[in-house]
């Protein structure tokens, strides 16, 4: 927990000066004067809940920006952090009981489970979109419902394949494979060399969801069709699950219980040479005091998701967005906090400090110098372009949010890949579970 007051601001002036310098990194010219602001309520105090950081600079700069807000407005802000898997249930409880943090920065389409409990942020979202080049399509999809902004996207936590380049070369690959056949051969080669892969098959909010959605979609499978009918039990899904069995055979043991932190630790410990992750693995290596990890940084590569039989990109990554609950006593203060934190002067230093761990939701943010300061950052710059959402091929809503919260796709792939169920049995069970939520 961090409680921020005016007094705290004095202690962090040096950090803010550094952040201000980083703010010059956005190559879009000087931002015009703000033409939107909200008058905070008298005596306003705010409580913000967000996910725990994987990159130290993310948290440090977020808190520095918050202190800056407090200094400017006099509004005390308490920032709490929870584990990734804990944010979703806490947000749901807050929505149901009508009490909790004013702002919760959560995941994916969670706002679509309780849109009537959230403030309309359309005015703010339209202002930011107009000022900063427009919203990426996937962020607009997640943030809006029935033409109204029910949440404010913070961005996309980029998720690519992180791998040891020297180990891939030893397995016979000079470049990262672009198709599923090549990807499987790479993983098989890594295992043969004693440097295996590992992808999360526990209830990992980011890493688990990201790769199992890609796996199913890349083969042409989908949870629901264009009319909202459950369609997961299909030949395309069976093909994806058969592939998962071959892929799982190359994994290090234990991935069935992995959540989001586990693959980071396994990679940094040298237990695996390939996993899917954000830029946090590279960040940890690059900034470590351990000479071995600093040496590893030069060997970390970032590979794009291979294309499957459908012949096009089928990527899914974690969109994170801020929700302002109607029970808040200080909605104007909260809107002003969000506006302030999303403005270029705060947002770019935050991206810089976290080396692009979160790809901004607004198109002008791709011009930030953080993406070219190091060539290993660049692959994460464009991750928001062309992403699918978890409502595919239908639409986002209470059903899509509930189905993903229930980890239907993760459990299906885990069961088939590990052999606890046949692909047909796993797909049939997923079909039954999905039908609880999709009742067309």
In short:
This protein has 440 residues and is α+β, with helices and mostly antiparallel strands. Helix content is 42%, strand content 12%. The protein has a seven-stranded mixed β-sheet, sandwiched between helices. Strands 9-8-10 form a three-stranded antiparallel β-sheet. A two-stranded antiparallel sheet has the order 5-6.
What does this structure look like?
Helix 3 runs antiparallel to helix 15 (about 345-355), helix 9 crosses helix 10 (about 235-250) and helix 10 (about 235-250) crosses helix 17 (about 410-420). Helix content is about 40%, strand content about 10%. The strands form 3 sheets. The chain has a 7-stranded mixed sheet with strand order 1-3-2-4-11-7-12, with helices on both faces. Residues about 1-35 have low confidence and may be disordered. Strand 5 (about 145) and strand 6 (about 150) form a beta hairpin. The protein folds into 2 domains: about 1-160 and about 315-380, Periplasmic binding protein-like II (D-Maltodextrin-Binding Protein, domain 2, 3-Layer(aba) Sandwich); about 160-315 and about 405-435, Periplasmic binding protein-like II (D-Maltodextrin-Binding Protein, domain 2, 3-Layer(aba) Sandwich), CATH 3.40.190. It has about 450 residues and is of the alpha+beta class. It has helices at about 5-10, 15-20, 55-75, 85-95, 120-130, 135-145, 165-170, 180-190, 205-220, 235-250, 260-270, 280-285, 290-295, 330-340, 345-355, 400-405, 410-420, 425-435, and strands spanning about 1-5, 45-50, 75-80, 105, 145, 150, 150-155, 160-165, 275, 300-305, 320-325, 360. The radius of gyration is 22 Å and the shape is globular.
